[in-house]
Design a protein that fits this description.
The chain is an alpha+beta fold and 257 residues long. 22% of the residues lie in helices and 32% in strands.
Length: 257
């Protein structure tokens, strides 16, 4: 027993001296759970490549290519994990519908998925249901004030309130509490994932409401109703979040359930 302890301590000392990757992996395996890997490539802010296989980071959704903060999210993740030893920890489901592995990625004692939310490069995202990390990710989003979390400074951002969020019937109602009209043209409603709706040319009158309804078929809009046409659902039964952003992409409000 004493001999084993001496050998282990010797390995630790050697690791700190030479920072040798193999010994680093050996010690991670010895002390913690998870699969030890080296990240070969970063595809975007929520996907990396390990052993020629894509790993989709659990608990987050980062901007798609062409969207604001896409490059920043990718660069943040590259700096944190590219060509480094990492530990993959898995959730309730190990693969998504695209056959990508789903995992939390740790470097040292840092959960990089969580770090992306803290730094405003991803929103929290739990399509398969809340797990043991959900509260940490939600809290990180609540405390974040930069990048994707930055609040709108538009005059109407303080006017628009979420009056009703009936996710079971796919209905959202916004109310303008101010005594002046608010133009919502190009404002965006988004869920935790990729589903989004951009307001057409639209003005919400003072102290008036507008209802946004998800439908499968086209229907003429009225002054008090706007239809979000989709062939599938928007709000998931397992829990989701509504994000409302102004025409500049800044956050107006959000609501999780």
């Amino acid at each position: 027993m004493k001999k084993n302890v001496i050998v282990l301590l010797s390995l630790i000392i050697i690791l700190f001296i030479v920072n040798y990757g193999f010994l680093d992996s050996l010690l991670i395996n010895f002390f913690g759970e998870g699969e030890v890997v080296i990240v070969e490539r970063v595809i975007d802010g929520d996907t990396v490549v390990v052993n020629d296989s894509s790993i989709r980071l659990l608990g987050i959704n980062s901007p798609e290519k062409g969207k604001e903060y896409y490059n920043e999210a990718k660069e943040f993740l590259e700096e944190a994990v590219l060509n480094k030893n990492a530990v993959l920890k898995f959730g309730k489901e190990k693969y998504d519908k695209y056959n990508r592995t789903l995992a939390y990625v740790f470097v040292g004692n840092k959960n990089l998925n969580l770090e992306l939310v803290k730094n405003g490069f991803a929103n929290f995202y739990f399509p398969s249901g809340k797990d043991i990390y959900y509260n940490d990710f939600k809290k990180a989003w609540e405390e974040c004030e930069i990048n994707l979390c930055e609040m709108s400074e538009e005059e109407c951002a303080d006017c628009i309130k979420l009056k009703e969020f009936d996710y079971e019937n796919e209905i959202v109602v916004f109310y303008n509490k101010c005594d002046f009209d608010c133009e919502l043209t190009e404002w965006e409603i988004k869920d935790e994932g990729r589903k989004s709706f951009v307001f057409p040319k639209f003005v919400l009158g003072k102290e008036e409401s507008v209802k946004v309804i998800v439908l499968e078929e086209e229907k003429a809009n009225s002054e008090s109703e706007i239809f979000w046409i989709r062939k599938d659902y928007v709000w998931t039964d397992s829990g989701d979040t509504l994000f409302l952003r102004d025409g500049e992409g800044k956050l107006v409000l959000w609501r999780a359930y």
